[in-house]
Amino acid sequence: MTAKVQPDSGAPAQARVRQTWIDQARWAAIVLVVAGHAVGLLRGSSGLALVMSNYVYIFHIPVFVLLAGWGARRAQADGAGLAKIFWQLLVPYVLFQLIAFGFNYRFEDDNPSWSFTSQTFGLWFLVALAGWRLMAPWFRGLRFAVPIAVLLALAAGLSSDFDGFLSLSRVLYFLPMFLLGPWLVDRISEWRGDVRFRIGGVAVLAAGALLTLLLGGNFNREPFLGNVGYEAMNMSALEGTGWRLLALAAGTVMAAAFMLALPGRPNAPSRLGSWIAEAGRHTMYPYLLHLPLLTVVGSTGLVDAGQPTLRTVAFMAASLAFCIVASSKPVRMVTAVVVEPRTLFPPAPRTVSSAP
C-alpha cells in the first residue's frame, strides 16, 4: 500500500497510462479493504455482510501484493532501500501500534501488550511489505523464483510457529504474489487493451461472487488469509497444502480479473479517473487511519443499529466516503506526522563537490 507510482514526464505514453490505471486499481482496492474490514464487524448478524466479507477477502490483499511487487521491481536492499523501508513502513508501524494500544485500552478495555513482534489488527501488512522488499532482490537472482516461493508458502503452513511472530506466516504465504507482480501487472497492462480480456475479468469476478453467495456460511475463508498453519485450521498436511495452493491460485486469478475489469479508457482519463489516480498514490492514509476508527465503531451501538442488510449497505457506503475523505489533501496534511513521518525530517540537500 505504500509503493507509490509517480508520473514520469519523460516516460512514453504507454508507461504513463499504465501508471494511471495502477494508481486507480490501488485506490479501488483500498476501498475494498476498508469495506471488508467494516462489514466484518457485522459478519455475525448479517448474511450480506458475511458474503461480502468472504468475497473481498479472496482477492483484495492479492491486488495490493501484486501491485506492491510491481512497484518494488527495481528496489534494492541497499542503504537507500533500507532507509525507505524504515521511514515508509517501520516507523508508521511503531506509531500505529502505539495508537492501537491506546485505542484498545480505551474502547475495548484491553491492556496493552507492548509487543511489537505480534501485530494488532490490520498492521501486519506493513511488516510483511518490509519483509518482501528485503527478500525480493535476492529472489531476482533465482531462475525459478516464483515456484520456490510457492514451495516456501506451502511449507510455512506445516508449522504453527510462524503464525503471529512478525507476520512470518503471511510474509511467506503472499511472497509468490509479490514476486509475480512485476511480470503479471505488465501483462495486465497489455491485456487491458483487449476487450476480450476485460470481459473475461468481469466474468471471473462474477463467478467468484456467485460461488461465494451459494456457499454462504459454508465458505471457508481461512486458507485465503494465510495467517495460520494447517493444524490450526484442523487440516492434515496434505489437505492444508491443497487448500493453500488453491487459495493462492484463486486469489491471484481473482486479483488479475479485478484489475482487468476496472473501467477506464487509455489515453483519455476522465476528471473522476484522474482524481482516483491521484488518491491511489496516497492509499496509506485510508489504510492506516481506518484501523483505530474501526476500534471506536466496534465499541458503539452502530454494529447493532437498524435492519441487518440496511446496516451492511450503510457500512459499505460509509467506507467509500471515509476513503474519499482520508485521501483528501487537508486530511493528509493533518495526519502526515504519523502516516508519513518522513515529512518531518526532510533529507539534507546534496552538496556538489567542486574537486576534480
Describe the protein.
The chain is 67% helix and 0% strand. The protein starts with 12 loop residues before the first helix and ends in a 17-residue tail after the last helix. The protein has helices at residues 13-40, 47-71, 79-108, 124-139, 145-156, 168-191, 195-215, 222-225, 237-261, 271-280, 284-298, 308-326, 329-339. The chain has 356 residues and is an all-alpha fold. Mean pLDDT is 87; it is low at 2-18 and 351-356.
Detail the topology: elements first, then pairings.
Blueprint: H1 13-40, H2 47-71, H3 79-108, H4 124-139, H5 145-156, H6 168-191, H7 195-215, H8 222-225, H9 237-261, H10 271-280, H11 284-298, H12 308-326, H13 329-339
Annotation keywords:
67% helix, disordered N terminus, 356 residues, disordered C terminus, mainly alpha
Structural class: mainly alpha
Number of strands: 0
**Can you tell me the overall shape?**
globular
Give the amount of beta strand, in percent: under 5%
Radius of gyration: 20 Å
Q: How would a textbook summarize the main sheet?
A: none
- The quaternary structure here is single chain
- Percent range for helical residues? 55-70%
In round numbers, the mean pLDDT is 87
Encode the helix/strand succession as letters.
HHHHHHHHHHHHH
Low-pLDDT parts are 2-18, 351-356
> How many angstroms does the end-to-end distance come to?
43 Å
